[in-house]
Design a protein that fits this description.
By secondary structure, the chain is an alpha/beta fold. Helices cover about 50% and strands about 15% of the residues. It contains eleven helices and seven strands. The strands form two sheets. It has a five-stranded parallel β-sheet, with helices on both faces. Strands 2-3 form a two-stranded antiparallel ribbon. Helix 10 links the parallel strand 6 and strand 7. The protein is globular and about 55 Å long.
């Protein structure tokens, strides 16, 4: 079966992400302390539940305040969104080439504060035919359920979907389910090269 649709991750494929910007916004500049803080935030169960839509932003931020002993005045949502640096250089080329010709979807592990932020800040995000998020689907990559649910929602078998992600674990999980799965990190030219091999436009 020929390729019929594109699933793109957001962070590392469309947007540049750097978690250190979040901890810097909290006033932490020592690298060792940054690593320690992010190991708490990034791997906390409530973080994953936030991305699955099972915890609210208020519950997550309350956990962060308590765990890191932050004051009530600390601008947590501002700091949380600082990890999104902006769009990757020339990312519009992906949409210029494929939008309107091949169904173009995002499939991302993300949470409501980040979603609201990037949808408001970066107009290119509105060029997707649809953005499918972990917090809406109730699962996060590399859970098999998120891939299968996304494919079902667009009405296509995995074998007809080109999936590109910046995480090798996510790529491997999708490949095992039959997706045309590829790895790319912070490189629009690399992503375009993958797509050009899959679609003859």
């Amino acid at each position: 079966m020929s390729a019929q649709a594109i699933f793109l991750d957001i962070g590392g494929i469309i947007l540049e992400i750097n978690w250190r910007r979040t901890v810097e916004a909290l006033g932490i500049f020592d690298r060792a302390k940054q690593d320690q803080m992010w190991s708490v935030l990034g791997s906390a169960k409530i973080h994953f539940e936030l991305e699955r839509g099972n915890a609210t932003p208020d519950e997550f931020f309350s956990f962060v305040r308590s765990e890191l002993r932050l004051s009530a005045e600390t601008p947590l949502e501002f700091a949380w969104n600082k990890l999104i640096l902006g769009t990757l250089p020339n990312v519009e080329q992906i949409f210029d080439r494929y939008a309107g010709k091949v169904p173009l979807y995002a499939l991302s592990n993300t949470n409501l504060p980040h979603y609201d932020y990037f949808m408001n800040q970066f107009p290119v995000m509105k060029r997707f035919d649809r953005i499918m998020t972990s917090f809406e689907l109730g699962h996060r990559k590399p859970d098999a359920e998120i891939y299968l649910s996304a494919a079902a929602q667009v009405g296509l078998p995995p074998s007809s979907i080109v999936f590109i992600d910046d995480s090798p674990a996510n790529v491997d999980a999708a490949e095992k389910l039959g997706f045309r799965s590829f790895h790319s990190v912070n490189s629009v030219p690399a992503t375009l090269e993958i797509l050009q091999r899959q679609f003859s436009l």
